C-alpha cells in the first residue's frame, strides 16, 4: 500500500479555531483540545495512522513521534510560537 499523509494547521495559543474530528479515507482522527497549551491528545482509528510531526511556520520539525496506540498524549507546553502544522503519516 502507498503511504498517505494529512496536514493540519494547529494554534496553541487562545484563538478562535477548533478541530474536533477529521475523517480521511475512512480513518478517524481526533485532536483535542484545540487550541492546546499543555498537552495535545491524539486519538486515531486502529491501523489508520502510524506517525505525526509538528512543524513550525518556517518548516522546521519540532516534534516527530510514532503512534503506537489509538490514544497518544504529546506535551506541547514547550512550543513557544502560536502557529504549527501537524502532519500524520498513514498506510492508505
Percent of residues in helices: under 10%
Distance between the termini: 6 Å
**Rg on CA atoms, Å:** 12 Å
User: What pattern of helices and strands is seen along the backbone?
Assistant: EEEEEEEE
Q: Which fold name is given in CATH as the topology?
A: Immunoglobulin-like
The stretches of 5 or more residues where confidence is low (pLDDT under 50) are 11-17
What is the number of domains? 1
CATH class: Mainly Beta
Give your account of this protein's structure.
This protein has 92 residues and is an all-beta fold. It has a single domain, classed as Immunoglobulin-like (Sandwich), CATH 2.60.40. Helix content is 0%, strand content 55%. It has no helices and eight strands. Strands 1-8-5-6 form a four-stranded antiparallel sheet, with no helix packed on it. The model is unreliable at 11-17 (pLDDT under 50).
Amino acid at each position: 500500500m502507498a503511504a498517505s499523509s494529512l496536514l493540519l494547521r494547529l494554534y496553541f495559543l487562545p484563538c478562535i479555531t477548533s478541530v474536533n474530528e477529521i475523517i480521511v479515507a475512512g480513518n478517524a482522527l481526533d485532536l483535542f483540545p484545540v487550541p492546546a497549551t499543555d498537552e495535545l491528545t491524539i486519538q486515531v482509528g486502529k491501523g489508520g495512522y502510524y506517525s505525526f510531526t509538528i512543524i513550525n511556520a518556517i518548516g522546521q520539525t519540532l516534534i516527530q513521534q510514532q503512534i503506537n496506540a489509538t490514544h497518544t498524549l504529546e506535551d506541547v507546553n514547550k512550543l513557544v510560537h502560536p502557529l504549527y502544522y501537524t502532519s500524520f503519516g498513514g498506510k492508505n
